[in-house]
Amino acid sequence: MEMVEIIFKSIIIGALVGLSVGAGAARMFHAPKVQGMGAFRTLGELNACAGDAASHFSFGLGFFFNAWASSVGAGAFTQDVDHRIIPNWAAAVLMRKGRKPEDTLHNPKKMAIAGAIIGVLVVTFLNSTASAIPESLQAIALKVLVPAANLLINPVMPVIFWLAALDAGKRSGMWGTIFGGIAHLVMGNAVPGVVLGILIGKGVDENGWNKVTKTLLTSVIILFVCSAFFRGFDINFIRGFNLDVPNWLINLHKMLGLEVK
């Protein structure tokens, strides 16, 4: 009886989440004419798959194992369920047999319906399996699935996105390589940098160095500088060359409440 209740609630939650996530991801492609409802990284990752159904499916699959391990071992969903798995699998379903993104991925109605269906399946599967597995096996599953998922996220996924950047053209490959390398050094994962590099490269290819692309490049640079500073990368970078860190820089970190090791 408890399992039936879990499945029933999962169907309702999965449908509502998938509906909103699917519609929100599609609406982002129509900004600024209409209000977007998704996350910037979701838009970037959907674009990085270049409208290929297999790429959307494999991308979502890579994060599915991590979400499954989290639900089984910790009893909680990761943000990848709504940010990456549902929108990418909904796009993969709609774009099967070579359908164009303009008629599928960019259509809020179709993405909402596909997202609701995928949401029901994903949420129900995760909740039901997490409830059915005994506690003794949950610990084992966590030890097996988490390392495998971590290998998919890093280094497998960064390599796939880097190859996609190289395939997208010279500019996308160059900016993807530069920002991917910086992101790996600063954040420990190259995917965000590669995605931003693809956006900049494709933006320059289509529109040239206009106000929008220059603003995007400036914003990305500021983003990495701030991220490096607040993560303490600047201090570690200086120490990496066996140099003394200036006292004013250490005091600046401490003044902002940042931990200095």
Can you characterise this structure?
The protein is mainly alpha-helical. The chain has a domain at 1-132. The chain has helices spanning 2-27, 40-48, 53-73, 80-94, 108-132, 135-167, 170-187, 191-207, 211-230, 233-240, 247-255. α2 runs parallel beside α4 (80-94), α6 packs parallel to α8 (191-207) and α8 (191-207) runs antiparallel to α9 (211-230).
Give the structure's gist in a few sentences.
This protein has 261 residues and is mainly α. Helices cover 77% and strands 0% of the residues.
SSE layout and pairings?
Blueprint: H1 2-27, H2 40-48, H3 53-73, H4 80-94, H5 108-132, H6 135-167, H7 170-187, H8 191-207, H9 211-230, H10 233-240, H11 247-255
Helix pairs in contact: 1-4, 1-5, 2-4, 2-8, 3-4, 3-5, 3-6, 4-5, 6-7, 6-8, 7-8, 8-9
Question: What structural keywords apply?
Answer:
mainly alpha, 11 helices
